[in-house]
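Trying the structure run again after the queue cleared.
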Amino acid sequence: MTLTGVQLANLMHSALELADRCLVIEGGRIVHEARRNSLDQEKARSFLTV
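Done. Tokens:
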């Protein structure tokens, strides 16, 4: 299954409503971490861009 950018943005929005912290994991390593209230959403979206 392939997700579009719009679907990923919707998933991210839903996850942020529930999460206290956000982690971006790439290749088994945490490459970005932030609390929900201090998350740079543009930076987080850049990790979702293919």
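The chain has one domain: 5-48. Worth checking whether this holds up in the mutant runs.
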